[in-house]
Amino acid sequence: MKTGGKSYVSSPPAFSNDGKRLLVCTGNTVSIFSTSTGLQIASLEGHTAPVTSVIVVPASSPASKILCYCWTASLDGSIRHWDFSVPDLMKKVDIKMPIFSMTPKPEFVAVSSVGKFIGIRNKRKLHIWMVPEKDSGRSVSKKIALHHTKNLTVLAFHPSKRIVAAGDVTGRILVWRGFGYQTFSVSDELVSGRLVDKEEERPGVRGNDDADSCSTWHWHSAEVNVLFFSSDGAYLYSGGKEGVLVVWQLDTGKKKFLPRIGSPLLYYTDSPDPTLSSISCADNQIHILKMPSMEILKSISGIKLPHSLPGIYEGLYSGFAFDYSSGLVALCTENYGIQFYSLFNDRGIYEVQVCERNHQPADEITVVVTFVALSQDGSMMSTVEAKLPEEGIGGLVCLKFWALGSENKKFSLSTVIYEPHRDAGISAVAFHPTRNVAVSSSYGGDFKLWVCNDEIQEKGLMLQNSGWACLAVGAYKKKPMTAAAFSCDGSVLAVAAETVITLWDPNKNVLVAVIGETLTPIVTLSFAGNSEYLVSVSRGSKPQLSIWSMSKLSLSWSYKLHIEAVACAVNLSSFAVLALLPESSICMESEPSFQGRDGIILVFNAMDPVPVSTWSVKKAKGGGVAFLQGYTSSLKQNNSDGNAQQELLVYINSDREYILFDPYGNEANELGMSQQDGLVEFEETEKFGYASIYGELPKLNLTRNQTSLVPSVPSERPWESIFSGSSHNLPPLTKLCSAFLESLMEKRTAVVE
Fold first, then answer.
1. pLDDT (tens digit, 9 = 90+) per residue, 173-205?
2. Which residues form a coiled coil (predicted)?
């Protein structure tokens, strides 16, 4: 079993004292990355709930920089002390309450050579207290308030001077210099070598605010999320929703930028090594920077979250596709791209930009990537993008084909087809298993077969331009074509015409047969591996999972289930479905297996309606399942049969957390104990039929009180009075026959005369 897809940016990371490692909170663990390579080298495992904070114990001397100690806090109510060079747990403290944050020095506390200050943001005010020394005899009673016209979002204190900076919701940055000299002084005496003059002119300071001056810098177009002083105090770093890191020179106000980061900034983390720092972004990436040039040295890429689509595309979105042979998943991202993520290595590989974008994340979404499909060998990719209509007018659908490079192993654009089905949306795209042919179906009432010109050239026809072209067009009674799939050998093309399934010969584009009719439109078609069975999924008011026999051209079996995703094995006749549980099952507190879980994974053999295995899961809405080609050695370190290649099953939930496991191995019954994050709870697989899907029925007491109100004596000849009562009271035939036959065999006493 292997889990992954956790968030890298749920909490700020932490550098080791030598700056060579970066500690990142990832779910229930802390992942340790090398800052020179960007690869994970170790992890701290032991918490049973998400880790919320990680703090590296600072070095007390240059010689102690080699020490690698840290503290972690978690929602499981424990604080743990680690030696992360091994790694090894050294101490555990149970708080017995969830810990949401832990820090030795909060962002609103500044410790510098001029004193210790506490600052708190309160809408349009910044309150600052001075913490006196232990031997001064003073209490924290005096405070100052610095006023602003907009709500403040973040603040930062200078490391060695009485300078405080704050950002607001409009993108402005205010820098107050010389704050608190009047309020925090004992009298009109020298304070830190400066004579307090109440009548001195204070540019930019509002009212009676206690500060020498206030400067306003404005570059950000949205609220400021990140604000941080450099360790020497010469620079101020700021970032916001635009995805740009701005460095301000404190004395002159001059600035320079690190543009096109591509996602809103969340955290800026300084390193004990002054040449390194990191920024955490909302797209689940951490960039390691070389300072002061702000060059991105390495990027630690986590799995990216899906974008939220407008209502017109709800339910019509296929946000990911799986490469069966390489273990990669292609994910649609918010920045109009496709991220290729390695499920075996749990890291991002690269990203393909599907369409042009403005590198300002604050802008409204005008184009969305609604569909991505990969060929079976992973050499071809197809994407569908839609330009959103403005006020109900306009809108453009674009179909693109991509080819995998032989050298760099990255996809490059091959063909762009604008409005392939006129102004209708595309419902499905599928590749032929053995040829460079693809099919696209549309809600406009037709489907089209596309062929790559490379295949045409192989047949002796030379073309000037390489790319994809339309080979054939098909339709059925002007009905919307809602799904399409090729058989495992490519000899049959199945296209759903709303509620019926049409079977075509893709070589001749001839309609062969029409089978079945469902109550609601079919949204998914898939052939069950190398078998003769076709799997269809219908959604709507009467959802249904149906299995059709191609030899009999009839329905084999079906379930009334709301199916979210379907995956078919390539070399077997098995398939897996992700079904959403009804609301009544989700809320059942009496059934522990369904608490907090809204879905169930069912693995079937296409010939048998009884599930082979079942697992209840969380966050199933918007999730998916897929079979991948892999080795059990990729799931376990110690495996005697590690060389056996087989098909593995992966489940990815709506937050794009995933689990990869062997659905046919013995670990399926053991993972309920070893699964750390509760992503999947594996159940016993010995339930069949109704109980395997909906659980056991309640046991009813079917016995009733047989005590008669009138005492009676059993008759020795029951057959004489048996028909005098009601027919439903007849005793079993075996009991009746035995009594009658025994009466015929009674011995009679002979009469002696």
1. 999 888 877 776 644 444 444 544 544 577 778
2. none
